[in-house]
User: What shape does this take?
Amino acid sequence: MTKRASHVLVLASTSPRRRELLTQANFEFEVIPPGESGVDETPKKNESPHEYVARLAQAKAQAGWNSLADEKKKERILVLGADTTVTIDGLIMEKPLDAADATRMLNALSGKTHQVLTGLCLCNQHRQESMVSRSFVHFETLTDQEIAAYIESGEPFDKAGAYGIQGRGALFIKHLEGSYSGVVGLPLYELSKLLQRFEEKRSKVD
Assistant: This one.
């Protein structure tokens, strides 16, 4: 059971999955898009997957914060930014561009173990607190027919790595080491610890 915090938690994301996870965990929160201009999600040259999700989570939180208009309300607001990516062999797999791209990704994941990284960032007018959750997902070996049928379902196209663990993609997963909610897009245990750390530091300052 979550405790009522002294801040107002604001999710800087348009992801319905992140909203659902926060609701299921009984968090009280509001939602804003991560800034009118959005955030450039293009990986930088030589940027590791860990650095990539950490940077985007921070950028989304900051963009969300910058979009807030009510200066008085800002005093109690804590903005949450998050980003999730799939990585295998050091390569970053974001959302597929089309069916061919989704096929490429699923073939790369088939029969192997990959990592799912989710970056979290909380920010207010005084500071930021960030972390990255890491989970290992073991995939079944997929046939061409299974891949084609999954792509035909439409599920892969708005998900990093071209699959959704909360949907039909769960049928491909032999084993998971780490955070289920983190693979969906928002690691709830890690978020609760990050909020606790933020509140503890705030109490010391106050």
Remarks:
- The radius of gyration is 18 Å.
- The domain at 8-205 is CATH 3.90.950.10 (Maf protein).
- The helical segments are 16-24, 49-66, 99-109, 144-153, 180-184, 188-205.
- The beta strands are 8-12, 29-32, 77-88, 91-93, 113-123, 128-139, 173-177.
